[in-house]
Each structure stands twice: as structure tokens, then as C-alpha cells.
Amino acid sequence: MRIALPAACGLVLWCAPMPAHAAELKAAGATFPYPIYAKWFEAFSVRHAEVKIQYQALGSEAGIRMLREGAVDFAASDMALSDRQLAEFNGAVRHFPSVLGAVVPIYNLPSIARDLQFTPEALAQIFLGRIRKWNDPALRAANRGLQMPDREIAVVHRGDGSGTTYVWTDYLAKVSPEWRASAGSGTRVAWPAGASAEGNEGVVKKVAETPGSIGYVEYIYAVENRLAYGAVRNQAGRYVQANLESIAKAVPADLPADLRVSITNAPDAGAYPIAAFTYLLVPARIEDPAKRQAVRDFLEWMLMSGQRQAAALGYVALPESGVQRTAGARRHPLRPVAHQFSEEITNEGRYYRKARRRF
User: Partner of 9 for a Cys bridge, out of 5, 52, 166, 277, CB 3.0 to 4.6 A?
Assistant: First the structure.
């Protein structure tokens, strides 16, 4: 851990020793959860002054690459890694969902006084470049009573490797066979139309500066920047706008043991259809004991104090009882993974025991 010593310290022969287990952790990855991670890392460091966490919001793809190369201690990703991706690492990597969020269609139409409604088909056709004007019949049909402007649509998409893009294109690939066949899903795709911008912040800026534009960003970026964002028709046929309640309803009753799951296009009638877990990717073995302790402490803090901060920061906390592991038992969906992680990282059974009691 690097400590900035006061100038006067150089005039004496002794300074206060560094705290026990002092550690500086480096992390990088998703911009999707950056607003809450920035607050979390700051709050955690107040409680644990011996730990400093430096986070670079470079996009999920960059974070995964840096973790694979050993440039960071852990990474953040809006998508779960595939078996093929996991095989590219030298050692095992664990997925820790941190919160839930959503990706929303933002647009800049000053003449429209209320929130627009989008069908899945219309969103796919817009980003394919097939629907080119705001007064297209498909958009008029979904927004009856609105005078849709005779204006060209300017599409804005991410240019960097992005978990937000993965969530968006994962949804489009599920609802549009044409999109799936032509562009597919991933952190990067061959965009059929539009202009690129870097990061959620870049898309926000470009849409805000471009009348007639449409883009996609994580929900909290739209809220914080006071941008209009539309309701999307879900699998049940209802137009639902993203909010904490509708995002939470996208979580299925049964989750896989390793929690690698896509929850876009969820079947619940009240679910917002473009929701996602966002993950911390942590090596199962961390050799440096100070860093191992710091990561362990942070994950425990995240499961308890961090979750209580989620709603105020525009994210949905993890469900406290998502998976039934034993008959009649209410168990936190992270617990099986957390136990496995603890056995591998510490070779002892104490890790997360305190968290288990709290849940």
C-alpha cells in the first residue's frame, strides 16, 4: 500500500508503521457498475484504511484481458465467462455477482413529451438500420397518440469492448432472428448502422448532443444524466420501463450453481426485459496473503453493507433468498460459490462463516 507521508515526516527518524495486512488492489473492467463500485470502494476504504482499491472503468472486455494477463487482482464484467474463456486463464476464476442492473434505450427527441414505447422487433430493426425515421409505422403503432417526428434516426452504439453491449446484443439476438443471424451477440459486434462512442459516458454525451439520436446505456447513467429512456415490450406482451422493481423481477426462481446466467427477455409479466447481473471475477488462488485477506474482506463487506447501499445508487441488490439448496432453507445465492472459493483461496473453512450467519 502506498501512503502519502506528510512533508514533516522527512524531518524525523521515525514515522508511524503501515497497518497490518496493508494491500493495494488493482481492478478493471465494466463501466456498467462503475457508479456503485466507485462508492463501494470509497466506503470500504473508510472502514478498512489499510486497503486501497484502484479501479479502471475500461469496459468488460479490457478487464477480462487484464485479469488474464495478471495486470489486475480482480476484474468486473457484465457477462459471465464461457467455458472457453475460463480455459484461457492459468488458474480457476470465480464469478461473484455484485448487483443487478439494466440496459435502457435512450433517445433525444425534444418534441416528444412522454416516454416512448419500443417493441423488441423495432429496436432490432433500428439498430440493423432498417427503421430509419422516427415516424416509421412500427414506431407509430407502439406510440399511439404521439405525433412522431419526420426525422432521421441517428444510431449510437459502443465502440469499445463492452459488457453493456453484450447485454444489449444478447437481448436483441434472443428476440430477433435477423439480428442473431447478421450481428449476433458479444462485447463487440459488426454494427450494421450507426456511430460509435466509448463507454457509457461517451454514449450519453453523443446522444445528448445529437437531436434525433438513439443509444443504449446502463439504467443509472440515463437517470443521473436526465435522459429520456423508453419502455420495452417484454415477453409477456407488456411495455415495462426499467426501475428497481421491474429489474428485480427479471431474476429467475432457480439459478445455476455457478450463477453464470443470462436474464434478458425474462418471462415474468412485470420484468424489464434487458436486465443483467454484473460480476466480479476473482482468481480462486491469490498468493499474496495481504491481498488475499483484502479481497476476502471486501467480498464479505459487499455481501452485507454493500448490498444495503445498492438501491440508493440505482442498482438492485442481490436476492437474499434466490436458491433453495436444502428443504425449507432460505439461502443466499452466493453461498455455494463463496464456500467453494473460500476452500480454494484459504484452505480453511472460516471464510464467509460470518456472512452465512448474517444471511
Answer: 5
